[in-house]
């Protein structure tokens, strides 16, 4: 007979069911004597040992290969009375295998797997189980948890976004499907958007930006920001997207919004100052750079742009001073900026 996969919400319910299944009643002493009390305690410990082994999983179960232990159904002639959880007694009750596992086809839980013998006892036990366990708790009838479904959708989005390059543009239908999946996860399992998962919103935002859909790109980045309180990565990118399209006011607004989240971000200050410089608003640009330097006195990037602004105005001593400071503070990885300063 085929296996029965029975789902339980916790280990205690599964244990209670196993004891009923194996016809294990209460273990009580036969008398008040010290010997009877010790024997009772020993039986209880032995039962717990068996149940513990069953809980450990498939191959740890004492009932995992009963059909091999009693090959061809041959039952040894045992004179003494056996415990109801002994392997021979369990086999005689109609079981070929009993074991446990933590998951079944993406369905996590406390699973009990039962395989019955092709005899009268086996058929009766199987029917006994079917009469007591609702169909909704058997095998594939058990619904897959929404969080598991959402994890699968995130895996699909991650794969799609990872396999696409500038040379191989995103397909619009893939972007739409990715957005649909991310929104579904946002609705049903928002707790999954932590760590690297939250940057799927950023990647999708970049994809939509490359496709030319700035509205959806903005939606993706703002959603990313909602899952990253205190982090302004999304606003930095949003400002870049707007600036690329010449939407200066929107770009400035995005950068200012980002500074409200993190007033110390030197890159937003840099981009904001660069925008003001391009618009001819020199005083605003210098103000942003001075704010950046106050917040990050040991960082060299904004000294470089400040030097450029002074250089444009023919203020060479001020430019020279800022270029020197930039070279002094720029660390490894900024060689190209250092060369510009020199």
Task: Write up this protein.
The protein has helices at about 10-20, 35-55, 65-70, 85-90, 120-130, 145-160, 170-190, 200-210, 215-225, 235-245, 250-260, 265-280, 280-295, 300-310, 315-330, 335-340, and strands spanning about 5-10, 95-105, 105-115. With about 350 residues, the protein is mainly alpha-helical. The chain has a 3-stranded antiparallel β-sheet with strand order 1-3-2. Strand 2 (about 95-105) and strand 3 (about 105-115) form a beta hairpin. Helix 10 (about 235-245) packs parallel to helix 12 (about 265-280), helix 12 (about 265-280) packs antiparallel against helix 13 (about 280-295) and helix 12 (about 265-280) packs parallel to helix 14 (about 300-310). The radius of gyration is 34 Å and the shape is elongated. The model has no long low-confidence stretch (mean pLDDT about 90).
Q: Estimate percent helicity.
A: 55-70%
Based on CA atoms alone, the radius of gyration comes out at: 34 Å
Q: What is the string of SSEs from the N terminus onward?
A: EHHHHEEHHHHHHHHHHHH
Q: What's the count of strands? A: 3
Question: Ranges with pLDDT <50 over ≥5 residues?
Answer: none
Span between termini: 82 Å
Strand content: 5-15%
Keywords:
single chain; 342 residues; mainly alpha; 16 helices; elongated
């Amino acid at each position: 007979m085929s296996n029965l996969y029975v789902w339980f919400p916790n280990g205690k319910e599964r244990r209670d069911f196993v004891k009923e299944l194996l016809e294990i009643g209460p273990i009580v002493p036969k008398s008040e004597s010290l010997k009877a009390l010790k024997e009772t305690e020993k039986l209880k410990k032995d039962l717990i040992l068996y149940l513990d082994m069953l809980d450990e999983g498939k191959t740890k179960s004492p009932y995992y290969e009963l059909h091999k232990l009693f090959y061809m159904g041959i039952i040894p002639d045992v004179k003494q009375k056996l415990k109801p959880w002994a392997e021979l007694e369990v086999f005689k009750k109609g079981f070929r295998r009993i074991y446990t596992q933590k998951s079944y086809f993406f369905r996590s839980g406390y699973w009990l797997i039962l395989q019955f013998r092709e005899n009268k006892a086996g058929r009766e036990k199987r029917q006994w189980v079917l009469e007591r366990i609702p169909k909704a708790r058997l095998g594939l009838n058990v619904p897959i948890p929404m969080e598991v479904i959402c994890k699968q959708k995130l895996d699909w989005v991650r794969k799609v976004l990872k396999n696409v390059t500038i040379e191989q543009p995103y397909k619009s239908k893939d972007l739409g499907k990715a957005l649909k999946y991310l929104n579904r996860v946002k609705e049903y399992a928002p707790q999954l958007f932590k760590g690297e998962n939250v940057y799927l919103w950023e990647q999708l935002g970049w994809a939509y930006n490359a496709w030319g859909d700035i509205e959806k790109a903005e939606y993706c980045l703002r959603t990313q920001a909602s899952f990253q309180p205190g982090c302004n990565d999304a606003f930095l990118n949003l400002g870049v997207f707007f600036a690329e399209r010449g939407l200066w006011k929107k770009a400035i607004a995005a950068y200012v919004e980002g500074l409200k989240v993190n007033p110390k971000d030197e890159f937003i200050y840099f981009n904001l100052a660069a925008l003001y410089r391009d618009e001819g608003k020199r005083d605003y640009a210098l103000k942003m750079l001075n704010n950046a330097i106050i917040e990050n006195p040991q960082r060299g990037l904004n000294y470089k742009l400040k030097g450029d602004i002074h250089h444009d105005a023919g203020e060479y001593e001020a430019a020279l001073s800022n270029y020197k400071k930039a070279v002094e503070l720029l660390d490894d990885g900024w060689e190209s900026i250092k060369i510009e300063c020199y």
